[in-house]
Amino acid sequence: MTDFFISLGMDAGWAFFVASLAGVLLIAFPLMLAVALIIYTDRKIWAAINLRRGPNVVGPFGILQSFADGLKVFLQETIIPSAANKGIFILAPIITFTVALLAWAVIPFDAGVVLADINVGLLYILAISSLSVYGVTMAGWASNSKYPFFSAMRAAAQMISYEVSIGFILVCVVLYAGTFNLSAIVEAQRGHGFGFVNGFYFNLLLFPMWVMFFISSLAETQRVPFDLTEAESELVAGYQTEYSSMAFALFWLGEYANILLMCSLNTLLFFGGWLPPVDWAPLYWVPGIIWFLAKTFFFFFMFSWVMATVPRYRYDQLMRLGWKVFLPLSLIFVVLISGWLMLTRYDEPEYDCVPVSTAGTVTTDGAVLCGPEGNLP
Questions:
Q1: Omega prior to 225 cis, within 30 of 0
Q2: Residue 140: alpha-carbon gap to chain centroid
Q3: For residues 105 and 116, is the Cβ–Cβ distance under 8 A?
Q4: In terms of Cα–Cα distance, which of 171, 152, 186, 151 is closest to 264?
Q5: Can you give the three-state secondary structure of 197-216, one letter per residue?
Q6: Which residues have a Cβ under 8 Å from the Cβ of 43 and sit 6 or more positions away?
Q7: pLDDT tens digit string along 313-331?
């Protein structure tokens, strides 16, 4: 895109700036629209599972309900409790919303369709997702109210507990793909299952990792059955209790943006990203972004399905699952996968050396001189 603006006669620096800004807007605006639509979809799925109608009044089939709710909160008055720390109280939802958007900078929607295709994209995702706990903690503390504070402490403990397991799960994926780049991880899944299945989910060693990653995604985004931070029967409404108007809406938007992010990571890390499910030529006629969106929506459906059917965990059950089940299992699979790869993939080390007639040393340009048979002296 930078080359396009340069071709229009724009300076290289300004062309890069305008191209980057256009890329950000091309991601942010569709993402906000997608958040509005999946909130509607979420409520429709819950209604269908519970044999109810769901939103069906505002607009055709109720599709404008989310926009009506957004207009309602926009027109409401922002109320800040008199005893609250006003600066941090206002900053908390802004941080939550901003961090939720920042993570999408490295998500590849198709081959080459990514804002920043960096080599450490997976590490960037892990770092950015870890920052979301700050917004929740700041909201609970700045409200100067007991229930939001309890909720913030729960959220911090919950997110840290499951991020540890997620980190080891991502190590397993990186070991198999050999890279932290998300686009390269997707390409490593091409024809992975017996030469015709695109995706790591076919792997018997990585499939348990996907199950753990999916459950950890629910906990990371505080969805049922792990929504202990918003348990109405215990905490009124959690860290959002004292919020209203657009401040409350920013928490809502950030939460659903994080849910979509986790759904897309399930797609990219285990289910082939933009690749079709089967490595069959006619399926590649469908644009890759269509496959990516379809898989992401499938995982969102699973998120909604779990929310409508699974009862809430107790807090001690949530902690036990994270620390006593997922953490040991993920560590065991890191060892198993490392051992399997050492046995099957990595042979004797290959050296980049210059063969010579006699054993030598390192040359001035850094090349290693080999012995008569090409081996290091």
A1: yes
A2: 24
A3: yes
A4: 186
A5: ECCHHHCCCCHHHHHHHHHH
A6: 54, 55, 65
A7: 888 888 899 899 999 999 9
